[in-house]
User: Fold this.
Amino acid sequence: MCYKTDSIMRLTFGLLFLFLSFCLPIFSGQVSANTIVWLGGEGNWTDPTKWENQTIPTANDEVIIRSGLVRIQKKEIVEVNQIQLVDGAKIENMGHILIKSASSTAIIIKEFSQFKNLKKGRIEIREAADSGIQLSERGMLLNSGRIYIGAPVEVVGQRGKQIGLHGLILDGQSIFRNNKLLEIQNTKDKAIVNQGESIFTNHKKIILGGEKSLLQRNGIQNTAVITNNKKGKIYISGTYLDGIRNADSGRIENLGKIYLGKEKVITTYGIYCNDDSSFRNEKKGKIYAYKIGKEIVHKVKNGEFMDLGRVVVKKK
Assistant:
């Protein structure tokens, strides 16, 4: 009898262990991510023959594109956990890329890879454990559509979803060119970091923070090259630190318009220049200062601010 009882108890506990092992991840909301690899060559995202194991990526999958050209067509909605472009891979997006909650950095573009967000293209990154988009090793991001990083409050509720590190970071001689809209909300660190001899150019509209958003450090931190061109507009609001911090020989040229603290206060300085950096507000350039906690422009350690245009102080 004892032998039979012990056997039944062992069997019962074994079945219970298997049940809990299978069900607990489901009950806790944890779903393991699969890695799906593009097989190379040109093709459409929705073609299963172009993916490893003929599996089109879904919301919980991490995607690696090592070579070739991937096209996302108009009106297509692509939902994944992460996208990595490496070894000169390319994406042309005319659809809607949605990343609701990335387990690390949402989009990585490196090793001469190129991401074109075309005229009708939309990239939406609501939440990420690390950064929203990271470029390195001469990666390139050309935006002619709309990019939203960090969902605003009206989309996800009272507090909003957060980006765990930076909204957009460039390093290693990378290139970013904005021809339409880049919007970054609710970051735990800087909204934009431009470093490592990278080149950042704005031709249209950039919104960093806002009335219902929080950027927990600087709006822009630059140690490389940034140009805000003639039709470029940059709005920065709601930073815990500076609106723009230019350091370590970084160069910024403004030929367009920059709005500082229009929607929500910039806690410290509007523009902070240090360590031999150079900020040139060119002849046609305009800087509008609204709610600034300290000085509009602060210079230390041979930081240079040259105003050939206009700095306009607006009523708070």
